[in-house]
Automatic annotation (TrEMBL):
Pfam families: DUF7674. This is DUF7674 domain-containing protein. Residues 7-114 form the DUF7674 domain. The lineage of its organism: Bacteria, Pseudomonadati, Bacteroidota, Bacteroidia, Bacteroidales. InterPro entries: DUF7674 (IPR056091).
């Protein structure tokens, strides 16, 4: 079953084309969580490379996540916080945090920082 998260990711994040079909073949309720975690890992890989194109791509992905977060219900927001933000925050250091926060829209920075502090 395709959900709002999966439909939005398929429509707006080109990087998903390589792997999303394999992930959504199962009808598991956990599929959304796996997709969000995978998107975070894609962002982490791009942040590690750090080219301007990669950073722009991460920023575009985060904009899509922001649309989902701001337009989503509590379940969607929790899924994004628990999977996308938590996975992304695993690479943060004091040196990288300021740079990475600039990739987030203002309305998501607070939520991302909250996730970092909780973990």
């Amino acid at each position: 079953m395709k959900t709002k998260i999966i439909n939005t990711v398929q429509e707006w994040i080109p990087e998903q084309e390589v792997w999303i079909d394999d992930l959504i073949k199962s009808d598991s309720e956990m599929t959304e969580y796996v997709v969000l975690r995978k998107i975070a890992k894609v962002c982490i890989d791009k942040l590690k490379v750090g080219t301007p194109d990669d950073l722009a791509s991460v920023q575009e992905i985060i904009k899509v996540i922001a649309l989902l977060y701001n337009g989503g219900n509590q379940y969607t927001r929790n899924a994004i916080e628990n999977e996308f933000f938590t996975e992304l925050s695993s690479i943060e250091s004091p040196a990288s945090l300021k740079e990475h926060l600039h990739l987030f829209p203002m309305e998501l920075r607070k939520e991302y920082l909250k996730t970092i502090l909780e973990n």
